[in-house]
Amino acid sequence: MSDDEADPELLALLRQHLQGKRRIGDDEPETGVLDGAEYVYDNSIDVALDMRGCKNAAVNIYAQMQEKGYSPAKWSAHELHPKTKDDATVAFIFTMDLLNFSFWSERSAAERFAISYRDKQWTGYWSLVAALQRALDEGIPITDSHFWQDEEECTLDVLKHVFRSCTDEEMPLLEERLACLRESGTVLYQKYECSPVNLIKAARGSAAALVNLLARDFGCFRDEHRFEGRRKPIRLLKRAQIFAADIWACFEGEGYGAFRDIDKITMFADYRLPQVLNIMGCLSYSPPLDVAVRAKRNITSGSNWEMQLRACSIWCVELIRREIIKQHPDAKLNAVLIDFFLYDTIKEIESAGQETIPHHRTRSIWY
Fold it and tell me: Euclidean distance between the first and final Cα of the chain, in Å?
């Protein structure tokens, strides 16, 4: 081959790189979540980003996170989160994130589903954590995958008892939650010797690999959907990503949480983050979508509207993260910590009665 001729192997490698099939010199796992989010954002007609709003939000978010000392250690500081760093805690977090979806209610604060535990009433995500802690206190092995597989012991009636409310409203989607437990118990038995610890070990220190394993092996973690114009499904993987993030935060980046690529995890696309990003002036909606959200109409899971709300929120937080790093190159900050901060912020706004727009209504197991 002469110097004037192109090297066919080099051309093939370059072609793969340009097509996104392979990264030159990088064989590390990728979740594909950010790429999918950017694609939806680029093709979105009902959700838009305000770049000035994102820049302003980056300044305010960074200042407040510094003031409040956001770090992985903040995760364990909450009274309901586990305090030990052991296999039992991994099992608790796996169960927690397996069932971490759909807590919203149309009822008033006094009437909505709530868990009474430790002389307090807990709603939303915290109702789940409180119910799991209460079940363990009562001797119910709710975090044991052997228990999930036992159709005589782990029944819908038992789950109703575990998640019994101190109001008249029942926890949403109980049958779906039981199905998630049953499926995951089977997968853990077949592939991971009944232990989520072995699932983490199989990821070999990669948060992205852990997310990919969850999406590959567990149907109830496979949060991916079609969006018009794209052959590959858009991967959002909210609960798979939050499991990796919670393990990282609980173990403070050590032991089971020692992920070399935790920064590849994006924010967790749910119904609260689009709301807070809209309130902060980062996201805006088309008039039809805005009307639907404000009227609290049901938005179908996997629909174009819902995909735009979730994916554009992921891309929005990524741009905020990049802006913070641009202004503060030494900042130890990732999308996980920004997500934790934004979730706490919207709950504070809710408690203060200062919501200027409701969250969108989508009932599903994905978030």
Answer: 56
